Amino acid sequence: MDTQTNHILFGAILKILRPLVRIFLRNNVPYGAFADLAKKVFVDVASEEFGLPGRKQTDSRISIITGLNRKEVRRVKALPQLTEESEAVTQRYHRAARVISGWARDSRFLDKTGQPAELPLEGEGAVFSELVKQFSGDVPVRALLDELLRADCVERLENGAIRLKARAFLPDTQEGDKLGILGVDVKDLIGTIDHNICFPTAPFFQRKVAYDNLPQEILENFRELTEEQGQALLERMDHWLAQRDRDVNPTVEGSGRKRAGIGICYFEEDFTEGEPSS
């Protein structure tokens, strides 16, 4: 790697790490714990993705690739896996989001005006328990309802029916779940950038728009515009993908199993002199 590339990459790493370290310190994660996690990822990636064809990856080669000595490689390999809880958070996130999406677009669960209907919890026909069964598999109905109530996405009416309040799921009350989403969403963005670096002739879509001399007074309108138009786009994409997802439509044919999607986020910060505007 040449000096200029090193300089650019290290600068990018510093930008990525600053908000992450802010989250770490806020949650009492010390440097030593982060260092061990970083070492483990270095060892895992070197072991799984940088081996020589037809040859078993050795600790010596991992040591050469990562810069860690062999003793440290063996120690890091023995560290416990920490993926199960984050996977559980991810599953809860996707199940809740899928139920909301189905509620907002499936004609069986819409009222006469085309809006998400108020659904009885149990019974026959268009009821909340059937909605959960259709779009969230075998997850317990009460557990899913509690999840949506905690996130303030639904409310219980006096007659016992469930009313949808928000068409997007983002946990509002459980910080652990928000941190789990951090891992998924940031991974997706960095994965897209990595793909575009490795395959410049077949890039994934990656765009943003930003200006750096905006008055404070326009930001509320811009946030509202982002939420309105971003949500509309995501709902159109959700409808298109749902028709082709084999969990939702088991009759869909095709080979392999791929995960794909798009994400939209709003960002805002004070301008710092010397920072690029886009």
Low-pLDDT residue intervals, each spanning 5 or more residues: none
- Reading the helices and strands in chain order gives HHHHHHHEEHH
Helix content: 40-55%
Query: How would you characterize the largest beta sheet?
Result: 2 strands, antiparallel
Strand order of the largest sheet: 1-2
Main structural class: mainly alpha
C-alpha end-to-end distance:
25 Å
The total of beta strands comes to: 2
The number of helices is 9
What's the average pLDDT? 87
Structure description:
With 278 residues, the protein is an all-alpha fold. Helix content is 53%, strand content 2%. It contains nine helices and two strands, in the order αααααααββαα. Helix 3 packs across helix 4. The longest helix has 24 residues. The two termini are 25 Å apart.
What is the topological layout?
Blueprint: H1 3-26, H2 31-49, H3 59-66, H4 70-77, H5 84-105, H6 128-136, H7 141-150, E1 154-156, E2 162-164, H8 175-198, H9 219-242
Antiparallel strand pairs: 1-2
Helix pairs in contact: 2-3, 3-4, 5-6, 5-8
Concise synopsis of the structure shown:
This protein is an all-alpha fold and 278 residues long. The protein is built from nine helices and two strands; from the N terminus they run αααααααββαα. The mean pLDDT is 87.
